[in-house]
Amino acid sequence: MVFRKLPGVSASGMGLRLSQKFVFLLFLSGLVTLCFGALFFLPDSVRLKRIFLSKTETQPVTVGSGSENDAREHLKRPKDQDHPRGMVSTKGETSTKLKSLSRKASVSHEATEERITGGKALEDLILSRSKPESASEKATAANNQAASSDTFSHMKFKRCLLKPPLGKDGGKPSDPKTDERREKVKEMMKFAWDNYKSYAWGKNELRPLTKNGHIGNMFGGLRGASVIDSLDTLYIMGLMDEYKDAKEWVQTSLDLNSNGEASLFEVNIRYVGGLLSAYYLTGEELFKSKVMELGEKLLPAFNTPTGIPRGVINLGSGTSWSWGWASAGSSILAEFGTLHLEFVHLSELTNNPIYTEKVMNIRKLLNKIEKPHGLYPNFLSPVSGNWVQHHVSIGGLGDSFYEYLIKSFLMSDKTDEDAKQMYYNALEAIEANLVQKSAGGLTYLAEWRGGILDHKMGHLACFSGGMIGIGADDGATEKRQHYLDLAAEITHTCHESYTRSATKLGPEAFRFDGGAEATATRLSDRYYILRPEVIESYMYMWRLTHDPKYREWGWEAVEALEQHCRVDAGFSGIRDVYTLTVSHDNMQQSFFLSETLKYLYLLFSDDDLLPMEDWVFNTEAHPLPVIRKSCLQDEATQDKTVSE
Ligand code: DMJ
């Protein structure tokens, strides 16, 4: 028997009976287990950690940026090595210990909060660790492991905000008429959501006429775009039952293991942006682990000689390529230039600099490259890093690149000086080359084709009123009023494009030539697909000036949407804004729930709902918090002290 073989002591020689020997050994092994376990569960000790944790786990991550090899390396790395290497905290011991504590299961947000406030959370952490894993817990175990490398992210961000995100009373305005209007917008959201839920649950968009769902091919097999795009809107509107349904869908049905071809840009602004803001607003770890898993799947798109990502990526294999319609295999400015906000936040959440490195590499290249008249053309080769065509537009293909420059500056707590400089330089070039005054006195942004102006402005370009407005404070002091005036003039022109149509909704593009003034002259430009940009500018201009006309203009849009776009089972785009016999396009776009209705709701809310000092909206209107580095570092130090 094994007892007899124990070296040194002969159990039988001590005259013990078999049952006594068994009890003795049981006691001995219990003691050993207890001592060993204590090494891990007792408060952290640097010395013990040095002995028991391997060296690699405490090394800061060092990853190169933007090169083809880095991305290939990333792809080659076996999955199980990916997280430990990629997600290791660079901040030292506190997070390393927490990581080892919560290896197996997700650490609940509530437990984390209690821990910070000195409650019994350490116990909770240990208990949650030993709970048996459910199927869905298993499915996200890898992410939870990474997510827990910095379990305090949400609390840290919350403590670094200047004001409560939802204001005093959810932004409820004191004026009854405005409140009534706000309630109307909330009702529209509920109607749009309920119909999506009834007829298209889990699909990407609702088809309100045929009462079914639409999947499309923009999201590479990912589903539920309307769910992800709605999470934060439902939450800020206080539609909590609906929000809970949406959250549950994410928990049970959002499958990120798709193998289809996705637009990097669309997945980033809708899914990454939507999950990030849902996480920051609610603190639900579920959203954090999902967004971390998704973020990682996007990295191979940067696998190009320049690090400029291609437009399309297969989310399963990581292979990427350019859009067939983009000239000479080029990448699109508005696509690769609209990743910065989300990717910087991915680095914050994961403690992994790789995401920031990827977008900083894009920034560096764009800053360095020669620009015709200071303008940024819309097509760039991801292979050579040169412009492919000299088409410049503040509307489609270019738009959100400019938006992300100024917003990167604002989101960095006004520390990202390069972004600021690039933004104001670009704006100067836009003013010098593209800003025009029509015969009728309307200010508009023309497009530029190799030096020749095309006197057309797209609906998409109407976001620029708001953008120029929010950037007015940070340029040269003497230009502040000038920028506010320019922002107001552009917003006015966009409003004109609405008032000059029969439906009071604006066309996809309007022109200022051949006698036209803010009207579409081509049949193919007459449609309206529930886009937000004009209303987005009303919202910003309202916050910046409190001129009541912006709320009135917003209300005109609500009435027009109700009259022409609301159908039995949701809201639909229309084919021609110039006729009252409307023809519906049978599509309730996910950005209608994410942007159009959210901006309307904010327009009729007090300014303390998602205050602009604390929040920056991504281009799909998902709010992301300002990153206050010094505050966050202080918080990290405090967290460390608490844990020691
Ligand atoms: C949205 O997905 C985003 O606003 C994007 O930047 C541009 N197009 C749509 C809305 O029109």
Automatic annotation (TrEMBL):
Q: Which InterPro entries match?
A: 6hp_glycosidase-like_sf (IPR012341), Glyco_hydro_47 (IPR001382), Glycosyl_Hydrolase_47 (IPR050749), Seven-hairpin_glycosidases (IPR036026)
Q: Which reaction does it catalyse?
A: N(4)-(alpha-D-Man-(1->2)-alpha-D-Man-(1->2)-alpha-D-Man-(1->3)-[alpha-D-Man-(1->3)-[alpha-D-Man-(1->2)-alpha-D-Man-(1->6)]-alpha-D-Man-(1->6)]-beta-D-Man-(1->4)-beta-D-GlcNAc-(1->4)-beta-D-GlcNAc)-L-asparaginyl-[protein] (N-glucan mannose isomer 8A1,2,3B1,3) + 3 H2O = N(4)-(alpha-D-Man-(1->3)-[alpha-D-Man-(1->3)-[alpha-D-Man-(1->6)]-alpha-D-Man-(1->6)]-beta-D-Man-(1->4)-beta-D-GlcNAc-(1->4)-beta-D-GlcNAc)-L-asparaginyl-[protein] (N-glucan mannose isomer 5A1,2) + 3 beta-D-mannose; N(4)-(alpha-D-Man-(1->2)-alpha-D-Man-(1->2)-alpha-D-Man-(1->3)-[alpha-D-Man-(1->2)-alpha-D-Man-(1->3)-[alpha-D-Man-(1->2)-alpha-D-Man-(1->6)]-alpha-D-Man-(1->6)]-beta-D-Man-(1->4)-beta-D-GlcNAc-(1->4)-beta-D-GlcNAc)-L-asparaginyl-[protein] (N-glucan mannose isomer 9A1,2,3B1,2,3) + 4 H2O = N(4)-(alpha-D-Man-(1->3)-[alpha-D-Man-(1->3)-[alpha-D-Man-(1->6)]-alpha-D-Man-(1->6)]-beta-D-Man-(1->4)-beta-D-GlcNAc-(1->4)-beta-D-GlcNAc)-L-asparaginyl-[protein] (N-glucan mannose isomer 5A1,2) + 4 beta-D-mannose
CC per GO annotation: endoplasmic reticulum; extracellular exosome; Golgi membrane
Relate the protein's function as given in its record.
Involved in the maturation of Asn-linked oligosaccharides. Progressively trim alpha-1,2-linked mannose residues from Man(9)GlcNAc(2) to produce Man(5)GlcNAc(2).
Q: Where is this region: Disordered?
A: 59-114, 129-149
Which cysteine residues pair off into disulfide bonds?
C462-C494
The active site lies at E266, D399, E508, E533
The protein's name in its UniProt record: alpha-1,2-Mannosidase
